Structures are given as structure tokens and as C-alpha cells.
Amino acid sequence: RSERKFGYRQLHAWMTILFQMIKVFILSKITWKSIRTMPQSPIMQAKAAEEKWSTLAQEPTTIGSNLYSTSEAILLKWLTIHQQHYFPNDTRVITFDELRDCKAFASVICGYIPTCESRLGLGAHMNTGTGFVYTPNTIAECEKNAGMVLETAKAYGMDMKISAKELIESTTRDLLLITLNLFQALPQFVPQATVQFTGKLHETISKTVELTNPHRWPIDYLVLLDDDSGDFKIDKADNKLRLESKSSASLPIWTCPRFSRKGKSRLTFLSTSRNGPNSASTIVFNLEVDVDREHSMKTYNIESPLYEPLTHELEVENPFNERATFNVQYHQQYNRDIGPKGMRITYGEEASSGAFQEAFWTSQDVLSIKKKEKGKLTFQFIPFMRGQYTCRVVLVDERVGEVVYVINATGLPPVPVDKLSFQTELAIPQTKEIALPLKNAAQEKGMNVLHSERFKGFKTRIKQSDKGDKQSDPMNVRYKVEYSSPFFTGPKEIVPRAEKEDDRKSKAAGKAPLVLSVIFQPKGPGVYPGKITLTSASDVRVIEVEGRSRSPGMKADLEFNCTARQVIQQELPLTNKTAKDWTIHASLTGEYFSGAREVVVKAGKTKNYTLIFSPTWVCDVKGSLILKNNETLERFTYNLHGHCGEPLAETTLTAECTAREPYTLTIPVPNIGNDDLLYTIESDIPFARGAPTLNVGKGEVGKYALLLKPTLSGKTTGSVTFTTPTKQYVWFVVQIQVGRPPPEKTIEIETTVRKALVAEITVGNPTNQDLSFLVRRRGEGLVGENRLIVPPNEVAIYNLIYNPLRSTGDVAGDGQLSFYNDDIGEYWYVVKMKATEASPEELPEVVCELGKSKPIPLEIGNPLNQELVLAVSVSNTQNFSVNPGVNLLLKPFQKAQPVVTYMPSAIAQRQDATVTFSHPKLGKWEFVVRGKGAPPTLMEPVTVNAVVGRSQQTSVVFRNPFPLPRRFLVALKNEHDSPFELMIKRRTNTVAPFSSLTIPISYSPQSIAENRTEVVVQAVGEAVSEDLKWEYPVIGIAEAVPVDNAFRFSCRSRGELSQAISLSLYQVNTQEGEVLSHEVVFPEVHPYKRALESSLMVQASEEGPVTHEDAVKMGYVVTFTPLRPFTAVAELLIRKKSGGLWRFQLHLESTPPVPDDMILLEAAVAQRGSVAFTLTNVFPEDQAFRSYFTPDSPAEFTVSPAKGTLPALPQAPGTPQSVQFVVSFSSSQYGKTLHGVLVIETDLIEWRYEVKGILPKYHAPVGTASKVDTRLRGETQEAVRAAAQRKVDYVKHNQQVGYSSKLGPARASQKLLK
Q: Nearest-CA neighbor of 490 among 534, 460, 428, 550?
């Protein structure tokens, strides 16, 4: 029996232990502080916002009791908040035993997953027949609720592995564990983000959600889309998504909204592997779609005058894939018109907007359309106010979807009710009156249409409304009058009026007229259309007006200017703005004037009257033109004035001929008269000949032959004039292109480049006077005189020089030599030029020791007036090199000296190379250089300095001169007992061809002396002579230990400092004949190096060296004369003849100089004052200068020029050139004097000037009385005097009052005591 009880007891014991572990490690962590950090449902968030977390934490029901802990009480409160949200009448959950009806479980699930409300029938889905029992009274009803809760939890991955019956039979501890499970699992379903979809209705909108798996194991998700509307879609047929380790995946989501209201959904990624360490949390996103409500499937634009009904049919389309029965909904809106300045226009009729019916109306409430088909929807539009109307038509089928259409309508001014016409003379006003009825017939008609169609069956209401209208008094209406044209004026406002007292009955009946008096004031002739708008608080009326103004006539002057036989046409526009055709009669007088006698102008058209002026010769005539309009009786008078100048050329004739050859040009000459004409011919062409006269018959065109015989080639322009006996003439422009004559002969010249050749050309003079020829040459390299003079009947020789700079190759170049003379013409020769390359210039052979190099200087000249860059090439780069190596720069008309360096690679063997310098314009220079190697002797010495007792390294660089790798032995002479030591590891080394071997040497002197040795490099091997070796002398100079304290010298610029110094020289051998010398070493790089070098001088004192104990005292005099500010460190080196060196540092400081002068500038505020002065260079060379004000100087000072060059001081006596500087001051404020420092500096010297800027001295005006009364009133003066006599101790007063504006009365005394 005890064994049977053991199984039950051990199970109970283990369950108790597990439950206690859960309470200790999980349940105890549930506090209000931890809840605040957890994702919460909207219900909890709203509760916290309403009561705050601190209030919830202090509530007695959540503090705990002797039955439940604080954590358990918080869970019960959590359940209560959600249950009372869905069931407001329920009391709070007191114990866990109350949870068996599952209402609390359903509430928390729906609170965190709102889409479950439709499944469980909560919230908006209550009482929809879902099966959930809201007030369960039996076990079956509780079991039904439990089944629905467990099924919902399982669908979202919260499978509790129990049945509904087990749930309602659970113990209190089990219900606590179920609650704890939901408390931990449900916060995962709080959406982490909201995916917003924005677009138009019926438009597909897509978004992509991307998930990343940072773990080393894959994750599988079940994708749940909670969408009751069905508008959202995902691209997952099996609703599964797998994320491999360290990878990402995207899930496309799209929606096509069917309704314009905001749509919501939830997307849940539920991990299917929730057990073990590889489980993943649930991810939830809210999906929201925001539809653009301004968008419509189609927009219709209509317009209608006020009170005029307009019926418009909308073509409505069903875009869905099923039949839809739409409920017709429409929303109207009235918008005012926008004025020219962007402001809304307020119309008068808007005051009665509440009395008007809506402008849009339709009789159709329901419209049924098959899928993908169209239907008709009829709307009526009747505007009663001017402006813009918008009607948004929404067709809704709650099951299928909705479509939207927009109608934009414009309410135009009403149709004119009457027309008023005026006719008057120009500038004469005319007044007319128009009578209008009190009632607006168009408005009445529109209202009748509205009532008859929209209120069918409501006759009683209409009669009562009509009855009320009849009782209204129309005499109280006021109309505002607006005129569209400025030529029509009248009253701005009218009211009804009666002509007689006895007509009150007619006025009450609505028959009394509105009388409007309109004045027409034209500014010119024509038709003036316009409109008058009458606006009251209830209606609008439009009256059309038209005014006609007749002109008494117009007078104008027309002036014509042209040349003889030229025709001018002047178009006179005639505009007919009337509705009738016009017939214009013309009366024309004046010689050479012509035009039509009658012109017809169609109605509404414009036609031009063409006036022609066609003079035949030079004249000055007058006439008149009168245009009369028979319709309007208007007269237009034009005074005509015609001026005719000399004729233009008939045409331009061209001729092409050859120099020294005759050519005949035929000129067609017209007859400009009415009879036969005999022309006299004149021409300004120097080489033209022809008959002096030409006879041309009436109406014919004569032919004149002009003989041309030019002597020179080129282009000539002249004229030929044919004059009649009456001095009238015809003339022509003649352009002659004269070609060159055939060449006299061909001259062939051949030479080498840069070698001149002279060709002699014989030129004879067969005339009896000197002939001067202008000589022109064309061809590269041709040179000669530009003019040749040949005496009478003699022969002269012209020397043509051919000096080519580059080769012409195998084909000779073409050139020309021309001789020009105005009398005998042009003679020219063809020159065939051939230039061959010059032979290379061979230079003498040079001999150079093996391992050394020897320079070979060259010289190349530039004969051109431009800078050239020659390309350099060497045929043997192994032994020869050129400096510069790639390009050689040649200045204009100057020579360059490139250097070829020879480095032998063999002994007693000739080595040569060809060095070429080439340029496209200069050709090329070739030099043949030769060299021969000699056995090496003593190489260039290497010097190393080291401090006594310390080591210093240097190196000897040996270059293998052979084209093959060789082995070389390195040795040091007298290496034993020597301060020198070879630091190379291996004494025998193999060196590649033409490569270098660096041989390090260490020098460690023990006394101040000079040491010498030699580094010997000897070639070893079978193919090498034993005597082939290179000896490098090495000179070691020992230096004394440097002294720490340096000598400092400071002096103002352009001042002088002379100071004696004494130097202690240790380890000096006082042997006879020992001589000490000194040297000053300046820094290699310094911005003012020239000024530094010229400012310091060191001289040895006359006493000479003095021995003192173990040192020698040496005195020196240092003279420091700087010309500009700088700082630098120089070294004074003391050497002894037998070897040795002492170093001493000299710190030099040159401070700014004393100002050379003071410049005083005076300028008023906002004005500029300037002073100019000159500065002369004190050095015999040009100096670049820079002028500026120091940074601490005010910006009101400026100087110019800012930079430039000071001309050199002339060597010979004379006036030196100066540079003018202008210093300016522009004051910007009153009060103080401004100070600045002007600096003008070069690399060698600096000038400084003190600059002051002051304001002009103020001079008060004299003899001018003040225009302002500055005296105080008598009572004011007495009050001021009394206040001055009354003395108050304000500190004591404040202590008594205890007042402080910052601290308040309580702390004022404390502050004062402190």
C-alpha cells in the first residue's frame, strides 16, 4: 500500500518543487517596474495613460495579501484590466478560480491580438454569432469558451497541450501557470513597427519586409496575415519562410485598396521551432493603408450661368470582377473665386447662401453595374452663386468596394437680361436710363425648375414657401452696381424707387422698376462693348451695353525717302470692328504717288490700303491722300512728302582674269528714258579701257564692252557710270579677281640643313626710269631683301638665301619668289627647295678613368623668336648620359649648353654614342661622342666629421663599371691602430652590372686632429688583372665636444650691435706654426637667407690665442647689422691647420625697426582720405616688395599697391626710380582715433610707418539761433530742484522694506548681510 502511495506522493513532490522554482525564478520577477519595460497591449497603454503606473502600483489590490503574493496580484490586475475593457459591467478578477469561464483569457488574447476579436466575438464583433458565451452558467458553456480560447491560442503558436475540459477542471495552481504562460507569450504579439502603405484607390501598392537571421542556426517562420478585408496579399503560398544562418530574406506585401477609409491588418512571423536553445521570438507588424482621398477615377469639368439648369451624365465604370450594387453618395462644396492678387472674392449673393438649395442633385440613390461594365449616372447642376463648386460622388458597395468621381463646376455670371446701346461723337458723353423689374425672372425660373424636379410630391410645402415669398417686401433690396468697362459709369448702388405716391399698390405687387442711369464717355472712335453687373443679397443680374463713337476725322503726315527708280509701298491698316462692311474711297494727289481708288473692308476684319511712291529721278515732291468711310462718315487725311536721292548701282558685275593678259567684260545698259539715249561713259578702274559713248534705243538694253588689262594679281573693286545728256545716270559696281600670271621659270635649290645657300636671280629694267620692286618670298628657309631697285636699262641681281632648319626628305619643298611693280606688273618664280640632313658632328675622343665620369659639353642655338623644347635621345645609354635627360629648353635667340657624361665600362677600348636633339620646327642635331677607359687611380675623397670620443659613420659608394657581374675585395689601409673601421660584413662581394656597393665606415677619433686612410676595392677573378683596383681617400675631422650654452645677439632692424666674445678651445696642441681659422655657417633653408648672410660679420681679435691652463682662449668681435626682422641660428666654426674643429651656436634675433615716420590721415564718416609717398630702393638690384598693415591694425586702413617691384638703384649718378604708395583711411564711426602700423618689406629690408586716422575737427555754427525750445516748464524745474535737495539712503530703505526682485522679501536681508 505504501508503494502505491509513493508514486502519487513523488509526483506531487516534484510538481511542488517545480512550481516553487517557477515562483522564485519567474513569478517573482513580475513587478510594475518590469511591466513598464515590457511591450504592452493598447488596453494597458490606455490604462497607464489614464491612471499612470505609479497609481496602479499603489493600488491596494496589487500590493499583495496573505493569500496572494504581489506578483500574483499584479497578474490578477492585468486580467481585470483587459476583461473590464470588453465587459465593462464585470467586477474585478479576485481569484484564479474565476478564470474557468475563460472570459479573462479571451480578453487578454484579444487585447494583444485585436484580429482575434472576430474569432472570439469580442469588441466590434460581439453578438455576431461566433459561439462565445458572454455569461456562461453551465459547465458546457464554460467548456465551449475554453475550446475557442485554446484553439485561438494554438493558431498563434501558444499550444497549451490540454483539452477544454482539462482547462475548466484545472486547479488554482494550473490556472496561475496558464496565466503566467499568456503573460510571457502575449507581449511578443505587440507590433514592433507599422508598415505604411500610401497610394490611390484601386492602385496596387507594394512594400517589402526584410528579416535577418544573425544566429548560426536556421529559423523557420509561419507567416500569418490577419486581414478581414482581404485587401492585403503576401507572396507565400504555403505561408512558410525559412531563414538560413547569417542570412536575410525579403517578403513582398501588396495591397489594392477597395475603400477610401483607412485599412488595417497584422502580419505575424511565428517561429515554428520554439523549443530548445534555437527558438526564435515572434515578430509582428501592423499593416496600414492610407488612401489618397483627393484622387478620383475621373474628373468632370462643367460650367453654367447662374439660374440655368445643366444636366450632366457621368459615365460610371465598375472596375471590380463581380457585379456591384452601389449606394450613391455625394458631397458638395462651394469655393470662392480667386482674385488677381491671390485673395478670395466675396460675392454679394453669398449673404443669402442659406436660402439656396444645393447646386448638385441626382434622383438616383442606387446604381447596379455588372463587372467590368459601365453605367450612367445623371446629375443636375443649378448655381445660384458665382464661384467654384466641387461635388465628390462616391459609389459604395460595402461588399465589393467603392469608386469615386469628382465634378468641378463653375457658376458663371447670369445671361444678360437686357441690352443698352449708345451712339455719340468722339469725346461727347451720352446718358441713358434702363428700367428693370424688381423680381429676377431668371432666378424665378431656376427656382421653379428646382422645386418641380427635386420636390415632387411636396406641393403643400411649396405653396407655403411661395406664400412666404409673396409676403416679403422687395422694396428693401439694394443692388451693388459694377461696370466692366471704364467708359461706362453710373451709380455704385441703386434701390427701388417709385415715380408717384399713388403707385404703392403696384410696388407692393412687385411691378415697380429699378431705374439705372448709365453714362457713356468714349476716349476715341470705335465700338465699346461692356457689361453691367447688379448684385444684391439674393440675386445677380447682368446688362449688356455697347457704345459707338464716331471720329470727326484724323490728320497725319507721311514721309517717303528712297533712291531713284526705287519703289516704296506704305501699308495703311483699316480696321472694321462693326458688323457691316465698309467701303473706303481714296482721293490721291502728288507726282510719283499712286494707289487704289476704293477699298472694301469686311466686317470684323482688317485690310491695308497700299500707297506707292515710285520716283524716276532725284526729286522733292508733296501730295495728299484722303480716305473717306461712307458708313461712319469718317475722313482720314494724310499729307505726303516724298524725297528721292541718287540711284543705287544697277547690279554688281564680277570678272576673273589673269595679270598682264587682256579681258573683255560686257555690261548690259538699260534705257532709263522715253526715247533713244546717248550715254557718256566714266570709270575709276585704272586698267579699264573702252568706247567713250554708247547709244541705246528706246526700250532696249545696250551692250558695252569694257577692256580690262591688269598688271598685278589681287582683288579690285571699281565702278562704271553711264550718264545721259540730262545728267541722269546708270552705274554698275565691278569686282575683278585678277589671277597670277604663269611663273617665269623654276629655281631649284639643294643644300644641307643649317647650311645657307645663295641663288642669284637676274632682273632687268627695259624702261628709262628706276623700277622699284616689292619682293615677297614664300617657303620655309627662304631669306632675302624685301625691296629691289633696278636702274634704267640695266640688270640687277637679287640674292635669294636658302637656310633650312629641317630636312625636306626625298621630295623637294615648293616655294615662291615674287617681284611686284605697279607699272610693269608682277613676275614670279617657282622655287624647288630640297634640304638634306646634316652629317653628325664628331667630337674629340675623351679618356676617363674606370669608375669615374667625364663631362663633354655641347652647344645648340635657337634661331627662332619662340621658346622651344628639344627631345633628347642617346644611342648608348650604358656609357653616355645627357643632362637634361629628356627635354632641352631653348630660349628665343639664345644658346644652350647640354652636357654629355661619359662613364667607361672597359679599359683601352673605344666606346661611342650618337646624341640626337630633335624638334618638329628646328629639325635635329646629331653629335657623335667617343670615349676610352683608363685604369683607375685615386678616387674622389670622402670626408667625415665626428666628435672626440664618439663614433660617426659614413659610406663609400662603389659602382661596378663592367657590363657583367664581378667579385670585388674591399680592404682598409692601416686598419690596425686606426680610428677608422670597415663596417661591412663580407669583404668579398659580387656586384651586378652597373650596380653599386655601399661600403660603411666608422670613424671614432680620440683627439682633435685630422686622420686619413684609404678604402681599396680590388677586382678578383681569373679574367681580371690583379692591378685593377680603386682607392677612395677617407678624411676624418675630429670635433670638440659641443658647448651647451649658445651666444645670443638681439638688435633692432636697421640698427647695429657689436659684441666681443671669448671662446675656450680645449685639446689644442700649442705647437709652433699652428694656425686657427674661423667660418660662419648659415642654415641652408631660411625665408630671409640673403638678409641673414649680409647682416653678420665675425672678426678675430688682435690679441690672438691665449693659453690658459688646459684650454686656449680665443677672442672674436661679432658685428650684427640686420635690415629686417627675423630669427635664425648660425654656427661659428673654428678650425686648426693641423686638423680639428670646434662648433659654437649663434642665436640671432632682429626685432621690428623704429617707425620711419608717422602718417596722419583725416576723413569724415563714410568718406575716404588718402596720402601718397614714394619709396626708393637702396640696393643695386630689383627688389620684390609686399605692403600690408599688421593684423592688429583696424580694417579702415588700406594701402596700394599691395605688391610689386622696387627698381634697382642706378650705378651711375642719376635720379633713381621710385614707387608711389597710397595709404587710405575710411572712417566708419565717431569718437576715437584709430592707430595702425604699415609694413613695406623685401627679402633684404623692411620699413615701418605709424598711421593715425582722425575725424575732422568740428566747428560749431556761429550766429544761428536754435529752432528747438530746450527750456523746461516752471513747475518741472521746481520738481527737479526739490528732488535734488531731498537725500535718501536707499540701502537702508531696502533693508527696512526687505525687497529683492530675484530672492523675494524673505531672503532679501540675508543677501544684503552677506
A: 534
Contact 911, 904 (CB under 8 A): yes
CB 940 within 8 Å of CB 956 = no
SS3 121: coil
308 has pLDDT over 60? yes
Whether the Cβ atoms of residue 255 and residue 205 lie closer than 8 Å to each other: yes
CA gap 844, 355 in Å, rounded: 124
CB contact at 8 A, 525 and 426: yes
3-state SS assignment for residue 854: strand
**Residue 841 above 70 pLDDT?**
yes
Q: Is 1119 exposed, middle or buried (0-12, 13-18, 19+ CB in 10 A)?
A: middle
The Cα 882–Cα 1139 span in angstroms is 39
Count each helix (H run) and each strand (E run) in the chain, helices first: 17, 83
1012 burial (CB, 10 Å; 0-12 / 13-18 / 19+) is middle
Residue 959 CA to residue 940 CA, distance in Å, equals 13
Query: Which DSSP letter does residue 29 get?
Result: G
CB atoms within 10 A of CB 626: 15
DSSP letters for 541-580: EEEEEEEEEE---EEEEEEEEEETT--EEEEEEEE--SSS
C-alpha cell at 917: 636633339
What CA–CA distance (Å, rounded) separates 442 from 1021? 132
Burial class (CB in 10 A: 0-12, 13-18, 19+), 527: middle
Angle between helices 1290-1297 and 1305-1313 (to 10 degrees): 140
Taking the C-alpha atoms of residue 1125 and residue 1248, their distance in angstroms, rounded to an integer, is: 11
| Cell (9 digits) for 541 | 443680374
pLDDT at 512 over 80: no
Instruction: Please name the residues in contact with 1186: beta carbons below 8 A apart, sequence gap of 6 or more.
Output: 1202, 1203, 1240, 1241, 1242
Residue 1009 grid coordinates: 686632429
Lowest mean pLDDT across 247-251, 909-913, 995-999, 1254-1258: 1254-1258
Phi, psi of 182 (to 5 degrees): -65, -35
pLDDT for position 463: 40
The predicted-structure confidence for 681-698, as pLDDT tens digits, reads as follows: 999 998 899 999 999 998
DSSP output for 730-776? EEEEEEEEEEPPPPS-EEEEEEETT--EEEEEEEE--SSS-EEEEEE
| Whether the bond into 892 is cis, omega within 30 of 0 | no
Higher-confidence position of 64 and 73: 73
Cβ atoms of 318 and 372 closer than 8 Å: yes
For 374, 527, 548, 569, 1059, the CA distances from 605, given in Å and listed in that order, are 48, 14, 17, 21, 110
Q: What percent of the chain has pLDDT over 90?
A: 34
| Range name among 435-439, 586-590, 911-915 with the lowest pLDDT average | 435-439
Report the pLDDT value the prediction gives residue 414, as an integer from 0 to 100: 92
CA-based nearest residue to 109, from 140, 78, 138, 73: 78
The tens digit of pLDDT for each residue in 1100-1146 reads 888 777 777 777 888 899 999 999 999 999 999 988 887 888 888 89
Exposure string (b/e) for 858-895, b if CB count within 10 Å is 16 or more?
bebebeeeeebebebebeeeebbbbeeeeebebeeeee
All three cell numbers of 453, joined, read 424636379
Q: Which residues contact 798 (CB under 8 A, 6 or more apart)?
A: 760, 761, 762, 763, 775, 784, 785, 788, 819
Strands 757-764 and 693-696: unpaired
Residue 810 has phi, psi (to 5 degrees) of -75, -25
Distance CA 639, CA 627 (A): 12
What is the residue-averaged pLDDT of the chain? 85
